[in-house]
Amino acid sequence: MVSLTAIRASNARIATALPSGLVGVFIGATSGIGENSLKAFAKHASKPRAYFVGRSQEAGDRILSELKALNPEGSYVFRKADVSLIKVVDEVCLEIKAKEKAINILFLSPGVLQFHTKTAEGLHLAVALTHYSRIRFIVNLLPLIQNATSLRRVINVFTAGKEGRLYMKDIQGWKVPMRALTGHGSSLATVSLEVLGEKAPDVSFVHAFPGFVKSKLDRPGQGALVFVLRQVFKVMSAINTVIPNEENGERLLFIMTSAKYPAGKPIEGTSGVSLMDGVEVTNSTGGKPGGGVYSVDENGESYGHKMETVMITLWKHEARDIVWDDLETEWKRITGSIVA
């Protein structure tokens, strides 16, 4: 476990250890985890450029002013968008591609507690936000990430460490039992990053569990199920330590920038802030230190043998091919192509 003191010490070195002008793209960043992480990035990076996407113009305007106060030398762009729609994801990506030649950090955290709701494009809303949309962002922006001459990292904040049975005949989870949804969704996220790790071994991919953090994930969910889930979160928060917003941002910034999470085949100068004494490179999902794809807990550490055993079972059942074929099938159905 990396201490909070060590995390903050590493983050304090970002402005000098990494080049000025780092470019970060934050999806789902107008509240909670995304907002916390975006502010930490703006606070510690030297002359950062940050693009952040969310549903609320009011929240976006508020955060813009707060970012400028945190670091007046930075450049910040807000884009209001409903990223549950793949066509909108493509629009946002094309706008970013028109402005940037390279991206250092892609941070993904959109989500909503709405179940059995279908998007206008025919996808399960919750899974569209946590799977189809997020991976589309990565695929679309991956060439820009690979263009970066320093840090190259993708952070997918979801339910890392909860990997479980993957319902391969029901990827969208329409009939997956409620008790199994977390394991199913977590495996989707990690398996997808593993495919991307093979396609881009020079990029680091991290599936991160943020711990218990105050969030507006339930907005705008309504109905009996969402009411029950809200009560469950209240109970869980009462028996688990709730991570303060500032600390949450610091912990996730460490995952974004530390050399603890290198790419599988890193290009020189792209591994992040060098490790301090006592901090070691994390084991990948395959159990190898520095393997390039990671599933980590709220302390930034690998879940170890238990999670690796689950992933080995999924590999044996060809989960990577099944999950990726489904992604490309849905993307083609909606947009006509597998990349914007």
UniProtKB/TrEMBL annotation:
Presence of keyword Iron: no
Name this protein carries in UniProt: NAD(P)-binding protein
Any one Gene Ontology molecular-function term assigned to this protein's record: oxidoreductase activity
Keywords, comma-separated and alphabetical: Oxidoreductase
Domain of life: Eukaryota
